[in-house]
Task: structure prediction
Amino acid sequence: MVKKKRNSTTAADKSSKGKDGAEGDHFAVTREFVESLVVAVILALLFRAFEAEAFVIPTGSMATTLLGRHKDVTDKYTGFEYTVGASAELDRHTQKKEHDIIQAVDPLYHRLTDISADESYNGDRILVSKFAYDFSAPARWDVIVFKYPVEPQTNYIKRLIGLPGETVRIFHGDIYIQKPGGSGFSIERKPPSKQLTLQRLIYDTNYPCDILEEAGFPDRLEPYPAETQGSWTKKENGAFICQPQGETWLRYRHVLADNGKNVRYWAMAENRQPINTQEARDTCSQLITDFSAYNTGTLTEYAGTRSSSGLHWVGDLCLEFEAEVESTSGVMSLDLVEGGAHFRCDIDVATGKATISSNDPNIEFEQTGPIEADTVVKRPGAYSFRYSNVDNELRLWVNDRLVNFGAPVHYTPRQAPVPKWSETDPGDLLPVGIGTSSVAMTLNRVRVYRDVYYIAFGTQYGRTSDTIVDYAAEGHPSWNVLPPNEIRAILTDPKSWATTNLFKSRREAIFKLEERQYFPLGDNSAESSDGRLWDIGQQFVPEHMLIGKALFVYWPHSKNKPVPFFPNFSRMKFIQ
Result:
């Protein structure tokens, strides 16, 4: 599939065509007036249908589900569109613009990008049902609006995590709940719709970076074992053709030209200097982390290192791809790795039977016996697949339909997972794979996502910097944590994973709720001022401070294309 074309108007073009300050201010005022008029008309119509109130998202604590003030950026090499938070441009008290976000890092290839010429936009406008909870109780994973307990005149928006009487445990990025009167914690699994809302894209073959490929930087998808590369052919449009000559895999490697530790390869590519492919593969491969491009906007130029966002390994992953199956028989396999454990789904293309298993004896499935289901993959043809390992649950979708294995495929690891690697099994270094020994097929648009990672932090653990991490060390937990550069060194060195104490030092954060108390978290965990960070004794939302349930993004910023103030229909959505 051909990659998305870049808009022919560059940042430099936009800058050269810009008007003077007075004209710019006049346009901004006019745009705000027209948008407000349109919004008023929409609200008048909606209020006739149901009781609701409009709110504007001010910050990025719920990004990228909901956007605060931000910049829309289009990468000049890939055409990929992404958003960068710009709330820091405004004075906290007056809300007037005093600064400019000038640089950010793109989410797919981690290129440091000048975004000073890109326009900033106000946050999403949303509708909130003020009476939703008069008819039903608030539900976990709802997006709620409430009065900030410390400053009741201020409204906050977060995702509801803990319910009255529960005890919430944040551990290894996941949510665990102890029910009222219970004696132990159980992992809280997100419903499929919430899982898909919260996952974050980290790779998409529809957006190749030609400049890196031409210089010799390694591809993120590679045949495995290496000697089976003759079974795979990569087409110009990014598709992979498989004519298997024995068992072979196409596996994902998280190799970045700029991972915050090695930063020279982007400069080499842009200067058309050749890159030693094997050296780059060895030095730039790393674990998948909670890096978020939305959080990388900066008011000053980066010097040496990048944003500290992305210091936590994320093992909960999701694979999506489209396949043109040519064979009438054989088995196609999907594989996700977490903590060295392979979670494999084998699909027999003759019968359509899908079978899930794991090679790790430390994994206990709730189901006994074979875990099997029927799918529609029963003949040559085009199919779409999604396979995920999130919240200790495996899910398979075929053609956008969730496959029923008779019961949810839940499992429990006997011990907390830590990343693993060896010469014979790369494990978490190559954590995603599509394999076969007998099925001829063409793979199109391969995508890899990571789950949201909730950082186990709390006011009670002390805070010595703007960066929050869930690592704790012996002694004072906030003073003895490794600095970001040393954490990155471990994340990029698979030989150290077996000996480091970093992953075993991840703390748990526990919050106990009384009756009529709710615990909220932001989707953008690294940059969210939520229940974790409020004053001790006030780390909850009292029931009487709930305003309502967020329903709909009715007015994202206008795109001004094809005409000024044209509604941004693509981002209007129901809030999951």
About this structure: The longest strand covers residues 151-162.
